[in-house]
Amino acid sequence: MTASSSSSSSYPRPYPTLNPPPSDFAVKLEAPGVLHVSLSRGKLNPWSHTMTLEMRRIFDTLATDPLVDVVVLSGEGRAFCAGLDVGSSQLADLASDEGEEPAQPDPARIAFGLKQHIDEFQASLTSMEKCMKPVISAVHGIVFGLGVDLMCATDIRYADEESRFCIKEVDIGLCADIGSLQRFPKIVGNDSIARELAMTAREFGSEEALRIGFLSKVTKGGREGAVAAALATAALLVTKSPVALRSTKQVMLHARDHSVAEGLDYVSTWNSAMLQSRDIPKAMAGALSKQKIRFSRL
């Protein structure tokens, strides 16, 4: 397996690659190959501009770090994420023009500034998706607005039974622009329910989220139960070939946004290289011998 031979008693441990450590996230190695990234900004984890920058730095770092094979994303405190911290948002500043004629703001300059801000925000969350390592979200409490955006960019989604979800943006006078409207409908596969939830900002619980396909597991025990379930899945994933895991994620992301024919052509090209991996005969030998296989880090 990809995990090192370090004793499990030495975990959890600080994540040494990220320096300086982020201010609004707790990041630690929970086990060999398993990195736990927790939102850590007050009881409800309202999202700030600093978190946008830190999220991008965290995932750009771990994406190429051989210490990390799988990521678990959670939130500390009473909730996973209550959404955007409007008080700390830069939107008010960006929506004003500080040009030569402040009494007559230039809509074009305002638009350029706002688009740059939105693009930066989108890139931060998309860094989870572009990271070729599996990301499991384990949520509890309130998951509003940006909290849903975050979950949509992860590969596997678990939630505590008491969690509450809401695509909240219409209630503050805008449409969601960080990924929910693009990813959520494709995740649930039901256009009508996706539009209803996005247009009404209706809250929905974990059981409904499971029923419509947004979640794959509902857990008990609050945050601890959701995180424990995610870590158990992560422990299974780190025993798999990292070449196979990353290839599967990449091919499924491509398939989501392309036709079946395009997806088949893509995977045939992709696997013309990946089928040459030494992991394949190793995995086959392990299956036949019923022995655990240790794959080289990637």
From TrEMBL:
GO molecular function terms attached to this record: delta(3,5)-delta(2,4)-dienoyl-CoA isomerase activity
InterPro entries according to UniProt: ClpP/crotonase-like_dom_sf, Ech1-like, Enoyl-CoA_hydra/iso, Enoyl-CoA_hydra_C
The entry's keywords: Fatty acid metabolism, Isomerase, Lipid metabolism
SUPFAM superfamilies (UniProt xref): ClpP/crotonase (SSF52096)
Gene3D superfamilies recorded: 2-enoyl-CoA Hydratase, Chain A, domain 1, Lyase 2-enoyl-coa Hydratase, Chain A, domain 2
Family assignment from sequence similarity: Belongs to the enoyl-CoA hydratase/isomerase family.
Name listed for the protein in its UniProt record: ClpP/crotonase
Species of origin: Pseudomicrostroma glucosiphilum
